[in-house]
Write a structure and sequence with these properties.
6 helices, globular, mainly alpha, about 140 residues, 2 strands
Length: about 140
């Protein structure tokens, strides 16, 4: 499996590793049950600190994309199928956003907000309380006077 990173980007290296694995899963290049190279192999191949690769793998584990087992290494979980199902939808959404001139960061924010909504449209249902560090909107003194 080829993991790509670009040290000149502003995105942390561990996030780039995780995104590369996620992309391989969504694109069908990795399937449930496939083993990933060890974190040490990834770190050596990319000339990175071992902890950077471990951070990426732990993040993917927390997302449910991989399972980390001592002696077995990192294995892609059944969540791979769900990512593959969404792959074409995400590509179409990204293209639509580009066509409308929406910046990638704005699209990402829309997705985060949409994911935080409950089925009735309320932001921050019971599963999403304190799910991120953003504060709720608070009007300034000018707006309240």
């Amino acid at each position: 499996m080829l993991i790509r990173i670009d040290p000149s980007r502003d995105v942390p290296l561990w996030e780039q590793i995780a995104a590369s694995v996620r992309s391989a899963v969504a694109g069908g290049r990795l399937r449930a049950g496939d083993r990933l190279p060890s974190a040490r192999e990834v770190a050596d191949a990319l000339d990175l600190n071992l902890h950077t690769a471990l951070h990426a793998y732990q993040h993917l584990r927390d997302e449910g994309v991989i399972d980390l087992r001592r002696g077995r290494g990192a294995v892609v979980t059944d969540a791979a199928a769900a990512l593959r199902e969404l792959h074409d939808d995400v590509l179409a959404l990204a293209q639509r956003a580009r066509d409308l001139g929406i910046a990638p960061g704005a699209l990402a924010s829309l997705l985060v907000d949409a994911n935080a909504r409950t089925p009735d449209g309320v932001i921050g249902g019971p599963d999403n309380l304190a799910s991120d560090s953003r504060d709720a909107y608070r009007p300034s003194e000018e707006e309240t006077s």
